[in-house]
Amino acid sequence: MAPIPINLAVEDLLSEAVLRKILRYSGRPYAIGTCFCKGGYDYLKRGILGFNNAAKATPFLVLTDLDRAECPPVLLKKWLPYPKHPNLIFRVAVKEVEAWLLAHRDAFAKFLGIQRRLIPPNADDISDPKQLLPSLARKSKKRQLREAIVPSLGSTARIGPDYNGRLIFFIEAAWDVTAAMQNSNSLQRTVQAITNFHPQWGEMA
Amino acid sequence: MIVSHAILKNWRNFQEVNVALGDRVFLAGPNASGKSNFLDVFRFLRDIAKPGGGLQQAVSNRGSISQIRCLAATREPNLEIEVHLASAAGKSPDWKYAIGIKQEVRGYRQPLLTFERVWRGDDLLLDRPDDSDKQDVLRLTQTHLEQINANTKFREIAKFFEAVLYLHLVPQLVRYPNAFAGPGLAGDPFGRSFLERVAKTPQKTRKSRLRKIESALRLAVPQLTQLADTKDEAGVPHLEAVYKHWRFKGAKQREDQFSDGTLRLIGLLWSLLEGDSLLLLEEPELSLNSGIVSRLPGLLYRLQRQKKRQIILSTHSSDLLSDKGIGGEEVLLLTPSPGGTQIEAASSIEEVRALLEGGLSVADAALPRTVPHSVDHLELFK
Q: How far is CA A89 from the centre of its chain?
């Protein structure tokens, strides 16, 4: 199988780690080139025309959080008024990529050492995953983990000092795509899109 | 133990400072606002407390009192430093140490203590000048902190100051130590004898640290493997690594062939693994790729947590301060003014706080305030 070159464009380190895991999981011969990540969705929004244009040469996989937008198609239309190039895979995590981590309920509950029932069964229904995740971690009995993920009392930070580090470790070590897909429709569709992607070259593209 | 509070009077850029410090402190401010001078307070205390150090030497290392004293200090000529040491951030202090220093009016113009006080909790253990000081003024040229006989009751804080570690590794100095003649600087701030420091570490510790550094380096500089220390024919210590290339075995390279970034990263990781004392870092982002810099705060946190040590660092880096895990209370903003530089926690400035609460990172909310007002005129400079 010929390798499929692909570049990533993401909002944060967590999304990058998730995409890398899904690409590996897909079983397709993806060869990841550059990861475009400057923090925040505004960078993706500003860059989307460029990513779409560059997709002519190398496929691009863009992942953003839905946040408060209505639904993924509306978001894409707002961002990209032009026709989307077929080699641009544009995916949206509902509502945020943190929900995808929570979607593997067993593993996440075990990771934090909390009860499984505290994690909502349908991850896409969580209204504010970025807020829910630290508040679940606050219940954890593992002190070091808690202090790394939850901001300290009175801090203006919304996440703890090693939030990314700990969660990326979770993604690498325990997060299972198959299990997480069961509880998140947006993740499932993203995995399908990645698994079924065929780059189009030449005239057509 | 960490420095939980610093109160300064007339110290270099600062006429008055009164700030709380946490496990990690990020100093941000325009050029020449006093970031390094703030770090220098702790180096000054180290220079007093370390063996062979003392007040006179700590001052003469820095020139003289008139060079340390704030230029804006007009009303009060004296310098004052007070630090509180606590077991953790936000806890009430276990120790307080305070000194005041002035310059002798005539004669040798030596630095003299105007006072020296030590508290354990709230108990005042030492309060100078005492009667003997009044009888023999020469005694005021030395602190009790620097004297083993006199600091018995508060040896713990002398040890704490003595262990303070400062790093601002200059790659050229590591590569060409012999090109910079003369005696080394106290505490080797710029890493000229960094390789000796590595070589003098007991073998087991040294090997394990280098292994750890190598595993981190492999992620940042994938071509570099097998980091080890070695000695040349003359017994001079070196660092060595295998640089992978098209030949099967790769090529051995020594520190003089390492890149600036590689050397700075090695120095940074080494000092993080070395000891558990207060660590002062000067712009750790220098020479490093932005992808690495943006991951530094998390890395520093992980390594400092293991040893419960405090890190105070200066930075200009937006990549570093973009980490959303950094709270506004961890960032001290330095703002120069005609009356001396002001230091305040970013979160204590209402506007910055509002921006942070609105979801901006510290880099976006606070760094724009550190850009000098007249910088737009640079466009007109020809």
A: 13
